[in-house]
Amino acid sequence: MSKKGLTRRTVLRGMLQGSAVSVALPLLDGFLNTNGNAFASEAPLPQRFGTWFWGCGMTPERWNPEAEGTDFALPPELQALARHRRELSICSGFNVHLDNKPNQVHSSGVVGTLTGNAPSVPDEFVSPSLDVLVADAIGSRSRFRSLEVAASGDPRHSYSRRSSSVINAAEVSPVAFYQRIFGTGFQDPNARNFQPDPQLMMRRSVLSAVKEDRQRLMRQLGAGDRVRLDQYFTAVRQAEQQLDIMLSEPEPLASCRVPDVPEASATDTEIDVVDRNHRLLAELMALAVACDQTRVFNVVYSPGASNLRRGGSTANHHQLTHEESVDPALGYQPQATWFVERSMQAFAHYLDILKAVPEGDGTLLDNCLVLAHSETSLAKTHDVSGLPLMLAGRAGGKVRSGVHVMGRGDAVTRVGLTVQQVMGLPVAQWGTRSMQTDRPVSEVLV
Q1: Which comes out higher in pLDDT, residue 239 or 326?
Q2: CA separation for the pair 103, 122 (Å, rounded)
Q3: Three-state SS for 179?
Q4: With pLDDT > 70 as the criterion, what percentage of the chain qualifies?
Q5: 178 pLDDT more than 80
Q6: CATH number of the CATH domain containing 138
């Protein structure tokens, strides 16, 4: 077949046991530009943003690299990530400034990182989390504005929030997550024939009818109810946008494949069970991203005040950070630190999964930007200075990786501002009070 007759819709056709079959072609060079980093039309490959969270931080002297820049040695608690050194940047020494507010333990760190505000009470989100801001900008072009999973089995373990009360709950069951992504409403971008779901078409007309009644209802309500109704219709408009996507023929994506239904898996805080669920959920999430079902994703490996525990033990990670003595010979808490090392192993496995999906001239990870973070540095003291932060992926070539950046006490909002600018948000500064900044982390910008 000549390249002239080759299109992204080309399939191989034949007969198998008397039935017609077709096989979609992968993303061949003929579909891409001469550099292999965009489609032939010069439309860019999709870019995505994700977060990966683990609880109870790290041991600063065993996690923070000593040298700055690209020539740094990985300390003991980062050794598991050695194989991803080129795709990974370490950000150390960035703080949440409390502005004379009390440290809301296991909350101030994550809220400050994701909203740029120091909370006055636990879990106070006075503004949307970082992922929601990004999803508002790029999430309307995919079926799901964002997807959230929690490996430790509690749907409340989600830090994706529009406000303190509006939470994007996490999926915890791999089977339920599979059904949500690939069940009713999924349109395979590589399917030969596209047929919109008539039930979705009916839902679309119902939503339109509700939308048309907005002005009449507004005139009948008080100020408080008008605000609530406006929030409701904002959600309706977002739903209509998602339905428009589901009723439109998707662009083919060679990296998209529909997996088999995963086996049912128990949920538990025992770390081997959490690892197994994390792997299953991560694999499904990667496929959801590759199939352009979402461009924003959030993974919680363990929640703040980590409840992970060893098999056969009742003492969990959080408990050990406070009750275990520091070994005088080692200089740290060996049992608590074991959970930090296992968490870094889990993040390495997560990056393995993203990197294993080929896309264009690189991998799915190359077209992602993943922010990995925790709610504290040393959990024993609930410290929110020197928070551990990592940026993985290259965001389609916009990010320089393999760098260690020392924050030297700067506000953690510098990292959040960097994320927003990389993802194309027109924002020049971010954060409130002493955490307001107009300085992105230039060391990781191309």
Answers
A1: 326
A2: 9
A3: helix
A4: 78
A5: yes
A6: 3.40.720.10
